[in-house]
Design a protein that fits this description.
2 domains; mainly alpha; 3-stranded antiparallel β-sheet; 50s Ribosomal Protein L17, Chain: A
């Protein structure tokens, strides 16, 4: 029985699971948004939220001109193993989520992957709405896909229809 056993094994050994979650955490901290499976996203959410809370508390204690909380940074580095991610976590993310009482990440389910049917999800940092910014309008495509969406016949179909009309016209002249 699994009473009081939290977390998912993800079909990995302890060391492999720890490395996987560490790599996913580093990617999330660096890119603010990653695609993965739902199970990995939910496990990564648990890990990253603890790291962000630790960083937020350390930055709050550092406050006005006090020395840096080296112990908290070393504990984060022991798990993440990436200096850039640790500095981003403590310098950028912790200061941005300073007023938020928790819930720093969001998991959005996307559906199933074609290859193996695994459920996919996007995990992102809530304060970094990377998918919400307005992008420049896309130019009209000249290919068959754009024409097919507009209700027009694709260029290939039009060429075939013109060729068929010519052959019909030629066969009518002969008869």
């Amino acid at each position: 029985m699994r009473h009081y056993r939290s977390g998912r094994k993800l079909k990995r050994t302890h060391s492999h699971r720890k490395a996987t979650l560490g790599a996913l955490s580093v990617s999330l901290i660096q890119h603010k948004k990653i695609w993965t499976t739902v199970a990995k996203a939910k496990e990564t959410r648990m890990v990253v939220e603890r790291l962000i809370t630790r960083a937020k508390r350390a930055v709050a204690l550092e406050g006005d001109g006090k020395t840096k909380n080296v112990h908290a940074r070393r504990e984060a580095f022991a798990f993440l193993r990436d200096r850039g991610a640790v500095s981003t976590l403590f310098n950028e993310i912790a200061s941005k989520v300073g007023e938020r009482p928790g819930g720093y990440t969001r998991v959005v389910k996307l559906g199933r992957r074609f290859g193996d049917g695994a459920e996919l999800a996007v995990i992102e940092l809530v304060d970094y709405n990377t998918g919400q910014e307005k992008s420049a309008p896309k130019p009209e495509s000249k290919g068959t896909k754009g024409e097919a969406k507009k209700g027009k016949k694709p260029a290939k179909v039009e060429k075939q229809a013109a060729k068929a009309a010519k052959t019909e016209a030629a066969s009518e002249k002969k008869s």
